[in-house]
Amino acid sequence: MSITLAGSQIAVEAVDNWLAAAPTHHFAIKKTWPMRYSQDGFDNLARGQCDLACADRLLNDREIDQFGQQPVAGRRIAFYGYALYVHHTNKLDAIFAGHLEMVLQQRITDWHELAGDAIPDLQGPINVYGLSKSTRAGMQLSHMARVWFNKPTWTVLDTDAEVIDRVARDPLALGFASLGYDDGVRYLGLRMQRTAPAALPSLEKIESERYGLAKVIYVYYLDPPSPQVQATLDYLASDAGQAAISASDFWPIAPDRAPLKRVP
């Protein structure tokens, strides 16, 4: 069954991998270039040059206009993301995203600069741990630290598990690793705006795009879906499709939480 994908590179490659793992379907996968941003997928879908637009963000109002009266539907498929981890004794509840960048740029180096007088006993060097710049997590850290070509400003470890282990043993640690760990560590909340409520990586926050360190993978298609699109959607929602997503570096979104509002 032939299916043509377009969109952001990470989203297209993820959907491609999940379809390739299908045990009972054979998806002949084609890709439409350019394959850089979500907008590339929306543009190609509107022009009839792909079956599925694979995106890491929602379709916006300006992009909807190009579809005219042709209805478009979408689904959440999966998400990937990271968390800030601290030692379980650390009393700081959250960090402002702007301050996180300053920590990664080594302009803030002591916990007291983050905690202030509200937590007088929290002080000492901020020991930052993360993965190599060549990993997806490392690329995100590089972007925040603005060290694309320079050496990492954090201590580089080989795996998420090593980051978590180091944080669990270091009361002054700040770790950056994949979601889902809780052994001896806890999440540090993130404020995207200085006075905004702290966001922790809950499913509700991630799905509503209110947690800045996670990305949802969406697929959009013309409605009603063609037979090949419907077969793809059915597979991704099946036990086999959900298992393929779980076997990758992504978390599947349950099919009952997947549908997006149909537009227009």
How does this structure look, described?
The radius of gyration is 20 Å and the shape is elongated. It contains ten helices and eleven strands. Helix 9 (227-237) crosses helix 10. The model has no long low-confidence stretch (mean pLDDT 95). 31% of the residues lie in helices and 25% in strands. Strands 1, 2, 3, 4, 5, 6, 7, 8, 9, 10 and 11 form an eleven-stranded mixed sheet that branches.
Characteristic key phrases:
31% helix; 10 helices; alpha/beta; eleven-stranded mixed sheet; 264 residues; elongated
Structure, briefly:
By secondary structure, the protein is an alpha/beta fold.
Number of strands: 11
Main beta sheet, described? 11 strands, mixed
Secondary structure category: alpha/beta
Query: What gyration radius follows from the Cα positions, in whole Å?
Result: 20 Å
Instruction: Figure out the total of helices.
Output: 10
- Which stretches of 5+ consecutive residues score pLDDT under 50? none
Shape: elongated
Helix content: 25-40%
| Mean of residue pLDDT values | 95
The SSE order reads EHEHEHEEHHEHEHEEHEHHE
